[in-house]
Amino acid sequence: MADSTLPGSADVWACADAVRRGGPLVHNVTNYVAMDLSANALLAVGASPAMVHAHEEVVDFALLADALVVNIGTLSPNWVESMRLAVRAATDRGIPWVLDPVAAGATSYRTQVGAELLAHRPTVVRGNASEILSLAGMTGRGKGVDATDESGDALEAAVALAQVTGGVVAVTGDVDVVTDRRRTAHVAGGHPLMARVTAMGCAASAVVGAYAAAVADPLMATASALAVFGLAGERAATGAVGPGTLRWRLLDELYALEQSTVLAGTRIS
Amino acid sequence: MADSTLPGSADVWACADAVRRGGPLVHNVTNYVAMDLSANALLAVGASPAMVHAHEEVVDFALLADALVVNIGTLSPNWVESMRLAVRAATDRGIPWVLDPVAAGATSYRTQVGAELLAHRPTVVRGNASEILSLAGMTGRGKGVDATDESGDALEAAVALAQVTGGVVAVTGDVDVVTDRRRTAHVAGGHPLMARVTAMGCAASAVVGAYAAAVADPLMATASALAVFGLAGERAATGAVGPGTLRWRLLDELYALEQSTVLAGTRIS
Amino acid sequence: MADSTLPGSADVWACADAVRRGGPLVHNVTNYVAMDLSANALLAVGASPAMVHAHEEVVDFALLADALVVNIGTLSPNWVESMRLAVRAATDRGIPWVLDPVAAGATSYRTQVGAELLAHRPTVVRGNASEILSLAGMTGRGKGVDATDESGDALEAAVALAQVTGGVVAVTGDVDVVTDRRRTAHVAGGHPLMARVTAMGCAASAVVGAYAAAVADPLMATASALAVFGLAGERAATGAVGPGTLRWRLLDELYALEQSTVLAGTRIS
């Protein structure tokens, strides 16, 4: 890295380029709402997505994948078992895996599933402030999938979670906070209109999975993925009438993002 | 209301504004095809969507929500049980709930599930003419999700259904008919190209849910939601090459819709 | 046909027009990721899509449909049973059905389900080279949903599969190869950017279903559907910044495609 502790813009570009060159296969056990946008975001950044959940094949598939993304958005006991099987296979193989604890805190079932998966020590957890506070057992005011706490408030919770997992925890919001306890990166970017498109956070988690597959350092991978996602979202929002435009432009921007844009636009501190 | 019986354009705007200001949480137990567009339409009008169906949490979640939308598009016994649980919780709490009886009449299973849910007296039923005729036990010619009866023909059926539910019944088509028996509103708007985009009706039902959460009078909420949806669709279709454009423009229009547009464009009689 | 063995551009247009005029009802038992794009592609070409999978109604629904499309993208035992029931009903009625063996070869479960469905002799099988090689028991290098073999390499496998099914087998890639053993059409078209949009192949299979419903000759139907899909994709990609644009433009192009464009743009040899 340009700096001994945090990724710089050249590192972000190096990560983006590594994903494009490597085309990692990202195995998603994710929610019904997020599947389409997640798959398209992964394709746009140069990765190869797969959505596989049957108990009969989820382990076999995890053996082929370069990373796993588990998202609890639309839970059911059958899918939770798929998640368990996939996580165990990923852990056994040592590939990185990302947990997106959608709406943790909204119901006790959801909080319990989140806690169980967390105990398997995800390489990266990516959530909004409410979700991260809830997972850390601190007071979250989450009432669903939309964040109602500021991400800055959740830094303490993120550090506590990272202590538990030994991995990276990212709290996304106006400024994304990414920590592995030792290092904490603040990633600026994105646009408020992104919150008016469903599954944006889920798609960001999927992209984190792709980056974590391509780059050895999970903090750098996570911060880079979020920097790229935010930058693309920011550019997509420029001149957008509304969320309909933003959604497809985001995919275009992720696909077409150039080195000069990343070098000029990355804001990590 | 401007008029003692039917909402006027100022009422429609007041409803739209109430949704934007209140940001109601809308709980959807809906079909796989409609999840993405429904969630995005809800976000575009200023509501907060959640798709939650596990038996383990569907009741807990209904307790957080401001409205419930149940859509039978992609049925299975497990999901029907989710619907039952969610409907009971919504009824117990007294929050409004919307039934979208997708393709009722196409199979006996679907007709039977529709009838069972209807018996729980939804605040609003929104369907096309074939679906409403089928639910009312009158001759529907439905062969799937697309309407094959004119909505005007279904007024009698809508009134009969509203008698059963004690709520509002909306038949969407070239002109939408919305009745609570006492009052019947005809809402003009929309564009034929909307029928070439999947899940448009489902998304309209979701938006009805958001409006019913924000406004006390279900007839006004339903007519207003359909007026706004139709107006946005009409504007989105202007100059659109085809259904691809229409879909994202609809979301932009729902998001950006202004008071002056609603005041000038609403056509309710 | 213009030629005694292969469809010409006039035949392709005749097929496209037959779909628009007939509006066939296409029953899909397909994967969660593909539902939205498949339904929208079917609507864009003038067909009527339905996604129905409950064991309680899948047979009833197959009786209403003009074609069936079975896609194994997101498998589970419960859905496999839906596929079995739907395939049997379609076969009993003699309506055409299409098998899309997504990621066959990636896991043994997937390969086994593909083989079982194949034994029911689909009217058309549409896959990429890896999937077709795997289904034929030849060496596929598939590691997921994206093709890693050239479609030309798979011609031998396609002919072998067509021998088993007695139907048509299509291998899509840079040039699509469509064979019924007796005749082999090479359909040029499409654009590399299409591979960066999820569920493109699935949507092509759905459109093949619509064409097979409207036209008696499965080879002509399949080649025509792929020619139209490729042509629309090619035009959609022209000037597209990235895959976000491509996706919605494809739907616009499918919807708006004119006779002159088809006559000038079809490249079948």
Automatic annotation (TrEMBL), chains A, B, C:
Any Pfam family: HK
Residue intervals passing through the bilayer: none
Sample GO molecular function, one term: ATP binding
Record field: catalytic activity: 5-(2-hydroxyethyl)-4-methylthiazole + ATP = 4-methyl-5-(2-phosphooxyethyl)-thiazole + ADP + H(+)
Residues binding ATP: 126, 172
The protein's annotated pathway: Cofactor biosynthesis; thiamine diphosphate biosynthesis; 4-methyl-5-(2-phosphoethyl)-thiazole from 5-(2-hydroxyethyl)-4-methylthiazole: step 1/1
EC class (word): transferase
GO biological process, one term: thiamine diphosphate biosynthetic process
EC number, UniProt record: 2.7.1.50
The entry's keywords: ATP-binding, Kinase, Magnesium, Metal-binding, Nucleotide-binding, Thiamine biosynthesis, Transferase
N-terminal signal peptide: none
SUPFAM superfamilies: Ribokinase-like (SSF53613)
Cofactor (UniProt): Mg(2+)
Family label: Belongs to the Thz kinase family.
Role description: Catalyzes the phosphorylation of the hydroxyl group of 4-methyl-5-beta-hydroxyethylthiazole (THZ).
Protein name: Hydroxyethylthiazole kinase
